[in-house]
Amino acid sequence: MGPPAKLVPFLLLAKSSRGAAAADLVLKAIEAPGVYVFGELLAQPSIAALQQSHPPAFALLQLFAYGTLAEYSKLPEPRPTLTSTMIHKLRLLTLISLAHTSRVLSYDLLLRQLQLDSSAVRDLEDLFIEAMYDNLIKATIDQRRRELHVESAVGRDVAPADLDQIAATLKQWCDVTTAVLETIDDSMKNAVALAGEAHAAEQKLATDLKTVLDKKDSKSKDKAIHGNDFGMLAAFMGAGGQ
């Protein structure tokens, strides 16, 4: 899967940009409409070099790739000034991150995390609508309860520092899945064995029943034969007496 289409022009420009031009390219990419992932841009050698030549620009790009609005104040000085466009996009990115933490997000929490005034409920709901329209989140708005009910959210870039934790989580998931599959396999083997035992018992019961019925039938035939012989003898003796 390739990079998002709207990021591609910046990736192409990054190949020939250096120093201040690359730093300016970062700012343009951050403000560009529809660009919400930046991992491929960070991986470009000319952009990675900004960590040494233009640290503020590189730190800002990392913030938009992995961070949230609340983390802006933690950037080392001198911090780049955020334009209104940048703040708005960072709010959308923060909303995505929050959507991954809980299925139900209260307005109060979101107003704090998105650094909106407590009375700016309409602005908050407009942000929800924009995020849903841009397919950043799938959710429903509960105005009565003042909650956002999240169904899903797009993924964000993964920070290198988080890779070990993700790998550990995936390994744990694989271990649990393997254990479950082994349990299912054992259960299936037991079920097959029990089915075999039940079939064998059924066959034995049928054989035993047939044996009993055969013996009963044989006795009935013997009794019938002896009864006929006795009847014939009685008839013969009766005829002789006459």
Automatic annotation (TrEMBL):
Keyword Cytoplasm attributed: yes
Biological process, per Gene Ontology: COP9 signalosome assembly
UniProt-listed SMART domains: PINT
Signal sequence residues: 1-22
PROSITE patterns: PCI
Main location: cytoplasm
Alphabetically ordered keywords of this record: Cytoplasm, Nucleus, Signal, Signalosome
InterPro entries linked: COPS7/eIF3m, CSN7_helixI, PCI_dom
Localization in the cell: Cytoplasm; Nucleus
Any one Gene Ontology cellular component term annotated for this protein: cytoplasm
Domain PCI: 1-155
Protein family (similarity comment): Belongs to the CSN7/EIF3M family. CSN7 subfamily.
Protein name: PCI domain-containing protein
Annotated source species: Catenaria anguillulae PL171
Classification lineage: Eukaryota, Fungi, Fungi incertae sedis, Blastocladiomycota, Blastocladiomycetes
